[in-house]
Design a protein that fits this description.
Its main location: membrane. It is a multi-pass membrane protein. GO terms for molecular function: transferase activity. The protein is an alpha/beta fold. The chain has 3 domains: 125 residues, Rossmann fold; 129 residues, no CATH class; 194 residues, no CATH class. Helices cover 44% and strands 13% of the residues. The protein has 13 helices and 13 strands. Strands 5-3-2-6-7 form a 5-stranded parallel beta sheet, sandwiched between helices. Strands 1-4 form a two-stranded parallel ribbon. Strands 8-9 form a two-stranded antiparallel ribbon. The longest helix has 35 residues. The radius of gyration is 27 Å and the shape is flat.
Length: 502
């Protein structure tokens, strides 16, 4: 049996998982040396067009719905209101476009798409405000402070809904970009595994070129040639992305020559650096002395962004406490009626810089549950240092419901209000857990612990210990306000699904 570029299939380095690798639609191989320039897929054009239409419709609908009310409240004529509405729509769409919010590279994955949309709306507000000042149009204020923010309130959920439709298609094996990976077998296998675990990102590795292990498959992905011939295989196979994994073969000169060879092929060259867990706002590429240099800035634990985060945390906690107060009163009553003991459970936890504080939760276990841990150690199903049991006999009937929907965590909003915790951050560990931390794991303590975080929206207690640590450290390294917003949004889905909560 042969793969799409004519090489015999080889024995597998690791047994592939059924259903994870689906071959793309077959196409006849091109003659050797003949370049293939794969056009942008139809679904990419369609998805980008849908995003543009969605943003435009959001702006138009808000202007149509709110514009007349704004105009009448200021005594504006219908023609003047119409002109201001058209200007607002035009400025918003131009600003969003200029901030590359519609670029294919940013659509469908990561927080960058929402960050670009947010910047576009912010700059649109600034442009409208400055325009109003420049032309003495005082009636622009409602358009700046009411209409444009309303566009954002509608545009962000619409973008998210489109993204979920795209992710569903990708889970069904559609709307995926064919990828070839080139590097040593270990690094290539790691990249293949990551893409299979995160199929929603849209990559499907279909072939590999390596400098070693040429007689094997890489988890079901065929090794089709040697690393030095990768450009020819990309052109012949029509791959959309060439992912370069670490390998001693890749010198600066060879990478430059590879980029030249791929010109006109339609393939994007993506180089995976050794800093696999550093991304986002900490990475900057600049040309110095004719060389592209990757700058890795230190994680931002202070500064204006952190002040903004603290303000958002405390204001958000106050608002949530006000809104959730009836539910919290009802939950407290249920706990009191269900079993004997206090309504609240207090526990010492470790916060930022190793400082201990007391968290408050609704009690979900019988009184004296802490003293029963030793007797239940044989039943421990937790990951790493965490003690967890799916069918924990200590949990009360009401506690099972409160845990499933994370209602028991709501009193920790008081910890956020006091500045001991954040809305988003790593989980607050117990002192005995923290005492057993390795030096790298202790980096979790560089930021405030959070009510929710990357591990909570990625499976919670179902995650292996190493994966939960990796996610927490990734948050510490790559923190941004946009990432916080995405995590908060995903938290609602995780809470309602109850996945991994026990």
């Amino acid at each position: 049996m042969r793969d799409q570029v004519g090489f015999p299939r080889r024995r597998s380095l690791r047994s592939s998982e059924a259903g994870l690798h689906t071959p793309r639609e077959s196409r006849p191989p091109l003659p050797a040396g003949e370049p293939s320039s794969p056009p942008v897929s139809t679904w990419e054009h369609r998805y980008r067009r849908s995003v543009i239409v969605s943003d435009a419709l959001c702006a138009i609908l808000v202007v149509v719905a709110i514009g007349p009310l704004v105009g009448s409240s200021q005594g504006l004529s219908v023609p003047r209101t119409l002109i201001l509405g058209l200007i607002t729509v035009a400025v918003v769409l131009c600003s969003v476009a200029m901030n590359r919010s519609w670029n294919r590279s940013a659509l469908g994955q990561g927080a960058e798409e929402f960050a670009r949309l947010g910047r576009g709306l912010f700059y649109a507000d600034v442009a409208l405000g400055l325009g109003g000042l420049a032309f003495s149009v005082e009636t622009m204020r409602p358009w700046v402070f009411l209409v444009v923010p309303a566009v954002g309130l509608l545009a962000f959920p619409m973008r998210y809904a489109l993204r979920k439709l795209l992710h569903r298609s990708r889970r069904e094996g559609q709307c995926l970009l064919p990828v070839m990976v080139a590097g040593n077998a270990t690094a290539a296998l790691d990249l293949i595994t990551r893409t299979k675990q995160s199929v929603h990102l849209g990559w499907r590795v279909e072939a590999a070129c390596t400098s070693d292990a040429l007689d094997v498959d890489l988890d079901g992905v065929p090794v089709v040639g040697r690393i030095e011939d990768v450009a020819e295989h990309v052109r012949r196979g029509g791959y959309r992305i060439l992912a370069v994994a670490p390998d001693p073969y890749w010198t600066p000169k060879r990478l430059q020559q590879l980029a030249w060879k791929l010109e006109g092929s339609g393939a994007d060259l993506v180089v995976a650096p050794m800093l696999m867990e550093v991304a986002g706002p900490r990475l900057h590429v600049s040309a110095v002395l004719g060389m592209p240099l990757l700058h890795v800035t230190a994680p931002a634990f202070t500064g204006v962004r952190r002040v903004v985060k603290d303000v958002v945390d405390r204001v958000g906690a106050l608002v949530l406490l006000t809104l959730l107060l009836p539910l919290m009163i009802a939950a407290g009553a249920v706990v009191a009626l269900d079993s004997r003991g206090p309504v609240f459970y207090r526990q010492r936890r470790v916060g930022k810089d190793g400082q201990e504080f007391t968290i408050v939760k609704f009690r979900t276990m019988v009184v004296g549950a802490d003293r029963m841990v030793h007797d239940l150690e044989a039943c421990d199903e937790g990951a790493g240092l965490l003690f967890k049991i799916r069918k924990d006999p200590r949990i009360t009937r009401s506690g099972a419901v409160l845990r499933r929907f994370s209602i028991d965590e709501m009193p920790q909003l008081f910890n956020v209000l006091l500045g001991q915790m954040s809305l988003v951050g790593p989980r607050p560990p117990l002192p005995e857990e923290c005492a057993r931390y390795e030096p790298d794991v202790r980096r979790r303590l560089l930021v405030k612990p959070g009510l929710t975080g990357l591990w909570q929206v990625s499976g919670r207690s179902d995650l292996p210990w190493d994966e939960s640590v990796r996610l927490d450290l990734r948050y510490v390294e790559d923190w941004s306000l946009a990432l916080d917003a995405v995590i908060l949004w995903k938290t609602m889905r995780a809470v309602f699904s109850g996945q991994g909560a026990y």
